[in-house]
Amino acid sequence: MIETEGLTHVQLVVRDVHRALEFYRRVFGMEVKAWDGDDMVFIGTPGRRDTLTLNQADPTRAGRTGGVDHIGFRLLDRTQLDDAVRQVVDAGGRLLERGRHPSGDPFAYVADPDGYVIEL
């Protein structure tokens, strides 16, 4: 077994790095950790160790999942799911599906402006 500190980042290929950055800032409050040139930015949730990399180097690949189904964000307060969906839509994303897990917990699948699926 390889010992790690856990998952370090997920990289998304996007059509417009600034549009994608604004979406993740507005919806999830993510902040810029570092820029790598003009086409790639590393962002993360304040106070957390997560990193999402937005890369515009080859925008023709944007939205293609390559076998990755979705990324998930755990809400601190699950009763705020309706508000979270509304914020996604207001920021240029869209609602794809709502439902309940077998445990009874509600969920929503939404998409960012490039079409990447996010589970809330």
Could you describe the 3D structure shown?
The protein is α/β, with parallel strands linked by helices. Helix content is about 20%, strand content about 30%. The chain is built from 2 helices and 8 strands, in the order βαββββαβββ. The chain has helices at about 15-30, 80-90, and strands at about 10-15, 30-35, 40-45, 50-55, 70, 95-100, 105-110, 115-120. A 4-stranded mixed beta sheet has the order 1-4-3-2, covered by helices on one side. Strands 5-8-7-6 form a 4-stranded mixed beta sheet, with helices on one face. The longest helix is centred in the N-terminal third of the chain and has 12 residues, at about 15-30. The chain is globular. The N and C termini lie far apart (about 30 Å). The mean pLDDT is about 90.
Order of helices and strands: EHEEEEHEEE
Low-confidence stretches: none
What class do helices, strands and sheet pairing give?
alpha/beta
- Count helical runs: 2
DSSP strand tally: 8
Please state the CA-atom Rg, rounded to the nearest Å. 15 Å
Measure the end-to-end span.
31 Å
Q: Which of globular, elongated, flat, extended, rod-shaped describes the shape?
A: globular
Helix content: 10-25%
The biggest sheet, with number of strands, parallel, antiparallel or mixed sense and barrel status, is:
4 strands, mixed
Indicate the proportion of strand residues. 25-35%
Mean pLDDT: 91
Strand order of the largest sheet: 1-4-3-2
